[in-house]
């Protein structure tokens, strides 16, 4: 029989006043710590963090900690509005991808350290969404990582420590207002977490399950092949899902997210939304995109946005005129046929879902974005139909039996 819950008394001590809550009119706003605990998960080294900054920081920090624990590699996350825009581990970066990510000089100089590569990958999963992100790095931040971050529009960072030169670089961002948080890697949160909504206090056991390779053991498809690289990508995608607003799916390849579908009521809409981001990520590698010749003096963000506009191609008349002014010679369009042909070369992609796929349409849409490996909890009445769809495409799918809703 279930034990009757007892009344709970919790006492908090004030830690810091915040500028405001989620919105400027939501004042006062503060953060607190349990009065019974002498520890706190972070300290502020620079800047004044806001309410949403800290929500991003706390979620992003947990994500990279779990990637580090599960995969044993340096990890990074780029967060916006309490969901990851990107996350990655420090997998080797090819010269081609360095060009796609606008990091040719750093790659050529050999200055990209594991932490720098991890963040460069995380930021470039969906760089348009990462604009103004909050960053988390699992390991100590070195100068090379700080120099990568210096070039980006970002609000702040959380990491377990900083080299002196790295801290100097970061403190100079945003006119000295860039937020730098030093996380305490030894901090242990309470087992039970509480939140209050409209006068109602909710309590639940903290979701402390760390997704590992053991969650990939129950392969239910005819194809049982799961290379180590694919297992790594499924783990990256699954841990990212754990910290993404539900419903969510995450696509990953080469040790990084390449598409996140967050906060959709329909799961197939998550798959489509994330799939559209995968398409943009991959089409940034198209030869015609890489060959774009911009006018001298354009900022990196202008070049990035122009490439994405070129890929999407859905200009208004005024947009097109402004876009064409970025080039000395206006490039030929990237046609729908060219995009379709190039996307058909994408393969070996992994996808994780925070809950079961209820219908096979999710698998059909995932196949269009090169998905070969899938992990989901399973447990739908349509499981057999979903497995059949995977078998038709020759996919490998595991049932983790672990739902990862996040709200």
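Q: What amino acid sequence fits the structure above?
A:
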């Amino acid at each position: 029989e279930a034990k009757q819950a007892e009344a709970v008394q919790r006492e908090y001590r004030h830690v810091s006043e915040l500028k405001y809550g989620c919105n400027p009119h939501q004042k006062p706003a503060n953060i607190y710590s349990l009065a019974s605990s002498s520890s706190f998960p972070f300290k502020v080294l620079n800047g004044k963090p806001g309410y949403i900054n800290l929500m991003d920081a706390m979620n992003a920090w947990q994500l990279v900690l779990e990637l580090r624990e599960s995969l044993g590699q340096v990890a990074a996350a780029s967060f916006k509005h309490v969901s990851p825009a990107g996350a990655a581990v420090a997998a080797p970066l090819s010269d081609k991808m360095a060009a796609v990510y606008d990091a040719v000089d750093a790659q050529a100089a050999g200055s990209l350290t594991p932490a720098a590569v991890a963040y460069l990958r995380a930021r470039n999963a969906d760089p348009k969404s990462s604009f103004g992100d909050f960053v988390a790095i699992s390991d100590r931040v070195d100068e090379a990582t700080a120099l990568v971050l210096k070039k980006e529009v970002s609000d702040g960072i959380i990491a377990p420590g900083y080299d002196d030169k790295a801290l100097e670089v970061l403190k100079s961002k945003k006119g000295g207002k860039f937020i730098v948080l030093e996380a305490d890697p030894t901090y242990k949160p309470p087992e039970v977490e509480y939140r209050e909504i409209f006068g109602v206090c909710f309590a639940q056991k903290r979701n402390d399950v760390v997704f590992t390779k053991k969650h990939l053991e129950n392969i239910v498809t005819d194809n049982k092949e799961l290379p180590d690289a694919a297992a790594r990508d499924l783990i990256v995608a699954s841990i990212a899902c754990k910290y993404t607003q539900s419903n969510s799916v995450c696509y990953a390849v080469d040790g990084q997210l390449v598409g996140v579908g967050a906060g959709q009521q329909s799961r197939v809409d998550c798959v489509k939304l994330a799939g559209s981001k995968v398409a943009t990520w991959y089409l940034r590698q198209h030869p015609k995109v890489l060959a774009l010749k911009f006018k001298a003096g354009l900022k990196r963000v202008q070049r990035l946005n122009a490439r994405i506009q070129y890929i999407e191609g859905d200009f208004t008349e005024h947009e097109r005129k402004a876009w064409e002014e970025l080039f000395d010679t206006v490039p030929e369009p990237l046609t729908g046929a060219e995009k379709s042909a190039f996307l058909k070369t994408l393969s070996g992609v992994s996808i994780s879902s925070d809950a079961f796929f209820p219908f096979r349409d999710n698998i059909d849409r995932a196949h269009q974005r090169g998905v070969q490996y899938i992990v989901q909890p399973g447990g739908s009445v349509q499981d057999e139909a979903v497995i059949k769809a995977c078998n038709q495409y020759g996919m490998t799918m595991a049932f983790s039996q672990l739902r990862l809703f996040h709200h």
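Q: And what stands out in the fold?
A: The chain has a mean pLDDT of 95.
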